[in-house]
Batch of 4 targets.
Target 1
Amino acid sequence: MFVDQVQVFVKAGDGGNGIVAFRREKYEPMGGPAGGDGGRGGDVVFEVDEGLNTLMDFRYQKHFKATRGENGMNKGMHGKNADPLVVPVPPGTTVKNADTGKVIADLIEHKQRAVIAKAGRGGRGNIHFSNARNRAPEIAENGEPGEELYVQLELKVLADVGLVGFPSVGKSTLLSVVSAAKPKIADYHFTTLNPNLGMVRTEDDRSFVIADLPGLIEGAHEGVGLGHQFLRHIERTRLIVHVVDMSATEGRDPYDDYQTINQELEQYDQRLMERTQLIVANKMDMPGAEEQLEQFKQHFESSQRIFPISALTKSGLNELLYAIADTLEQIPKNTFETEEEDLQDERVIYRHEKDDESFRITRDPDGAYVLSGPQIERLFKMTDFNRDESVRRFARQMRHLGIDEALRKRGAGDGDTVRLLDFEFEFVE
């Protein structure tokens, strides 16, 4: 089964906890703090595997969670860092934040990597909190939580050539006779429901990948027929081969077909009209095709080259394949634009959205003040509330962020309830 769009959940590993420990060695009565730091968690990394051509595996596994770092140890020993979780994806995969729709990565080249969810750092042990005023601190940080988010994966087939045209114009037949691909061929519309890829090798030993893409109809740019399921894949092709049924056996005018398909491409993405396009007049073995071809040529300048073929009888195919190979030699690879220009040339991508607000204050219906925001939530999760010194440190951090003053401005008074995540505090003046 061909799968080209799926949503999955990714969770990077949390950092390991730092610990509170002291040196207790012989002849060292004032050994001091010796709590080690926690290890870093594992990133969730997507890596391109050119052996894949579908997102089928993501239909069966939709949750990807990296391991957390190990906790710190005595004698200042650092916990072990976790290995990244590497998830293979096919070339041509675009990764978007499912909530915001923003592009995280556009993965094209083999072995290209993108860090989709960034791991949390390890918490610091009490060895870091010793100073002249507090030589035996009982403070240690919990590990930083790893990022977690839902991501939308979209696969856009990577092929040199894309076949476009109305349903039943002979695209699948053409692919089947010029390559070893075996697409489904039948005498009804929309026989092809998914893109089919085939490797073509010319007699002079040049090769390219050709994609038979599902047929278009009028209104495809709005999702009519197979709509965007098809149009997404044409974006990656270097060359468009426009197949026209020159027999007009279905009562349509070949030139009207040609114009309709190009209008759909233009309305979906104007940049597609800048792509090099070859016109192929198929079904030339049918009665009346020669007359239709002459009328068709009248709409073009004499310099416009049109390739008459019959995919069924294989006439004219060599000339077409040589023309495709010659044209591809003049088009540099990766001429298509990635979703974001700044992602195009990077092999390892770190791309994460930042929230400039350190905290937000809202009110619940019961009158409680609700604190939220990535920075304050991260500080809260990294605080060990089992130790009084850690609690006092967290209170100082809240004052430093201006939360106390902001609560007062919102009308908070002595004894009011303040919520942060699933926990409640009492506001004290």
Note: The mean pLDDT is 82.
Target 2
Amino acid sequence: MSSNANVDSNTASAQALLANDTLPWHRKITYGFTDMSGNLLYCIISSYMLYFFTNVFGLSVGTAGVLLLIGRIFDAIGAPVMGILVDHTHSKYGKSRPWFLWMSLPFAIFVWLLFTTPALSGTLKVLYAGVMYILADLSYTAMSTPITSVLPNLTSDTDGRMQANSIRLVLGNVGNFFAVTFIIPFAGLLGGGNDQKGWSLAVGIYSIVAFILLIVAFLDMREKNIENEKVITIKESLKATKGNWPWVLIVVANLAYWTAFIVRNSSMPYYFQYNMSSKALISFFNGFTIIQVIGMASVPFFVKFMHKWGTTVFFLLMTMVGQAWVGFAGSNVTSALIGWCVACIGSGSACTMFFAMVGDTVDFGEWKTGVRANGFLTAIGASFCIQMGSGFGSFIASMLLKGFGFNAADKVQSAGSLSGISFTFVWVPIIIYAISLVLMIVYRKWENHEPVVKADLAKRNAEEANKAEAAQA
């Protein structure tokens, strides 16, 4: 009888913990400031880095591609290291939150220096580009890893996490909008004909705004239950991956997603400048990426009816259809714009899902192994995928452009070069997105198991809380 009473008590305690663990709206919004800040700068890198290196900084497309790949390898290695550092962080602010304070200024400074062209030439100029690229990306990893790892500690409520993550991605898209839409005309305005000067000044101003947003997010954020979290060893962090198949699926699918996304973004400026014969279309089309907030905002509603795996598959398929539409549109700007908007809604919404689901795999890892490795698992599932996917994507794009004969010094590209640009921008991303889509169909099995995981973890936490109260009595 007593045993049954304890079970009922633990179950009731678990239900009470889940019911009362809500995240206020103002904190959901300031949580979104983190991604808004990151995207304000990082989306300049992901969308224009290859273009900047070849058409502004003055590197060959082959050299730029190799630098981008090498830099991303360093950063990809840094992602799990950063995750382990988060898991080993113990401060009055929590595990993830203090990193927004510590990394806000380095992140802003290094990105500004990356887009500042020094009075160097030859090997020194290449070395400067490589070092600044690595430092900018490492600082982004150190800032972005906590964005994902902090979410499970902000609230244990699944719906609350999904809402906060959706708001984060919507505000992140606002940052992306200002980054990809206005940076080229803004640099042109400030440079007055000097592109190198203009890019340095424009990115410098963006960096100041990004720094302020991160500080505001840090000041408002609160991590819960940090006093009960133990500092785990590297061995324990690795243990959290054992048998964590949903995490493996998310990592590979997200890696494929980011590879496809960066292939598209890296080749996009070349497509509009050379194939569509209008440099102005780069900013014009990128300005319409803001439309993806429609999909992002609707994600929680789609999840209710299609579940997470089905919602992700749906939006990935939408992305692929939009990409193909752009390809078949040819020189018809209106038709191409419609396809571009469809692709942007799909890709932006699919991205939202990956960030949300990687947080769920932290719960699965704890349920399976008893180890809650927020930092390590989310670092691999998010930052590693972004960095490595960006490296693969930029390298694939640059090597394809080089193979088809692209040369930035030629104002008019050859027929072979134009075909290569079109193939890289339109069709290569579709092929890679398809890999991600298939993996998410497989993920369905693990999502169906989530209610058991949530209930068991809540009961364990309630039992530990009751034991702690009994020990203090």
Note: The chain has a mean pLDDT of 86.
Target 3
Amino acid sequence: MASALVAATASSLSAPAMAQSETQTIEGIVAIVNDQPISYSDVRERGSLLLLTLGAQQPTQQQIQQVTSQALDELIDEKLQLQEAAEYEVEVSEEDINRAIADMARQSGLDRDGLVNVLLQSGVNPTSLEEQMRAEIAWRRIMGGLYGSRIRISRNQIDEAIEQQRNALTQVQYNLDEIFLYAPTEQDKAQALQGAGTILEQLEAGAPFSLAAQRLSSAPTSAAGGDMGWVALDDIDLEVAEAVRNMNGPGISEPITVSDGIYLINYKAKRDPNELETRVDLVRLAVVDGSEDALRDAASQANSCQAAIEAADADPNLSANELTDIRVEDLGAEGQNMISEVAIGQPTQVFATSGTLAVMYVCDRRQSGAAVPTREEMEDRLFGRELQMISQRSLRNLRREATIIQRGS
């Protein structure tokens, strides 16, 4: 909410416009979610908060109408989340809410009272933000409690994800952010397409992409402000890849329609693999007496760099040398081929060196200018994505099972 909130204090922006657009609307109930009502006043307050978040200075009537629809969707989801919280007896204290708002305020360079004043000066009732925080906190606790201990990220998943990251470094990469509006039906797509157009207008007017992604995106990256990191186009949706490929350079894409929704992509930068430099940490395990059988036997039992070092410490016929931060390009064609063929912790083929035989273990492989995450970082990333996908799927299931009556439907 950062810069958009601060900028909002200088003008009478979105909330008054929102209020004015609704003065002719008969106050009452706009929707009922499992017997719990959502009023026009609730929707008006949330719409004002959304417009403020996006930094809308002078929203058009079309933008206000579209944000009203988005506000109602948010409020329906929050009703469902809070109903689940009551079912599981999850309580969110005022202290929890105040702490969350204070954290948000700090991101804006304000304290809690300062943030509340910004809201009030812009015609936004702070209660709308408090209720949003209550639902978000409760839902996180429910999802974490139900599924956090059930999610298992296997070694193979981590290995495959890291290998995919390394492979991507050999291709042209794009630094991208995403906003994804979930729309499984054609009717939903038409509405989402209008919403994407409204969001795009605000982004082009200076609204922070990360804030819009946090508030509006259905992608697992929403918690990170839509940040996809550096990706190869082969690893993303075909339609999105094609749109990025056709962009002239950094900027925000037009809405991109895919099978289950609409994307907006923020293309930040591009880099070529020849701009990168591969470096490795190695352990060279050699046999003193030149016996290939002895070396192969030792290598078959040592399944990591540390194991190779320990094997050499225990056997006087073996020697191990650690080589750190070696530039792969300096190893020559044969050395590069051997190193590229093996996974981390595995030995290369036997080769001759200094009058004896040896194998080389690859302990680490990285690209300068492009950080490959550690195993722990990748595990955390995969866990977060999995929990986010479960959370979104659970909320969609709640919507399908709920009794939701909207005015006019």
Note: The longest helix spans residues 61-87.
Target 4
Amino acid sequence: MPAHRLPRLTSLRPFDSPGYFAVWLGALISNIGTWMETVAMGVYVTQTTGKAEWTGAVVALSFLPAVILAPVGGALADRFDRRAYAGLGALLQAALAAVLTVLAFRGQLSVSAIGVISFLNGCVSTLTYPAFSALLAELVPPEDLHLSTSLNSAQFNLGRILGPTLAAVVLQAGGPAWALLANTLSFFAVLVALWRVVPPARDPAVKREPLWDGIRRGITVARDDEDISLVLAATFFVAALVAPFIGLVPVFAIRELGQGAAATSLLVTCQGAGAVTAALGVGTLAELFGQRKLRGYSATTIAVLAGVYWLAPTLQVAAVCIFFLGANYLVLMSSLSASCQGRVPRELQARMGSLYSMVLGAGYSLGVWFQGALADRMHLRFVTIGSAAIFLALVLTTRLLKPARFENEPLAQAADVQPFSDSAH
């Protein structure tokens, strides 16, 4: 669909940038397949083991590599052709998905095999996603970076809507093997999109540092910038204390609500619907409140919404609650991600994105496993509501101690990023 025929909403402005829509659409198709696999494997592990700890552990394995490999992925993305590097990652992920597909069709699928493939897939994704994220940032002007990040989250969550719906149909009709096959084929949409796009030429004057020097400089920039440091800390805590609601959906649907695969798909779909709805309005919200105030409001309300969701007595109430929780989660996380990249020049954006991914992966893998393990020994709702309450206390304490960090940024940030740009030469 040509970009000029799309609705003229502020939030959709990045679609006017050449190549952005093609990459966005290819990623959407791939994510539909990914969510088909995620739902199928979540239901399989929960029903096979009957333990929340195993479900959380398998999810955690796909995020755990980010703790170590994310800075390496960011540095590599700032050294090589980002389009080719992202394409290599898509090929490797397709190969891993194909292994799971073959095992499923041969009746040899197991929880251990799913765990190993999840870990390897996490390694590939961690090393190559910074290149994909930075490529999207290259395709839009700097003032549209937050909108680009929100739309990228929207396509991920639109896949969360369509993927689980298709997964429920496929699981009922043919079993997990067909959902895994769909995911394998979906990666080729990314390859076609990357082949069609022409990224902007990179500045030949930018010095290419040795790999480890590049990693150290990215960490130094993040450490010395108080805004980036605070954003990364917030990312860790929301990932560890609130975000496990995503990975524990099968446990909540099956154990707490007494439902099955269809209910799991419904909850995942409703979360995605909320996120997509929020993505369409996030540009307007950012213009209305400003980036910092919007972050502060969404950080406060997400803890409340998470608590309400976990208290839901029925599937219908839970579906409504997770819709609003998913919307709030997109607004908060897209703002945090854009803040990391928006305060540095383009040659450092992949490294900032990788540090964000590292913190997100560390927090989420720890949180989803630990909450799942506690839920097997205590009541699931007690564990998850308690975690949300801890996060709310942290947010309110931060607002009290650092109120200026919840006020609007200056209209121009050039002075903030210029010193980092100069240090690159």
Note: The longest helix spans residues 346-377.
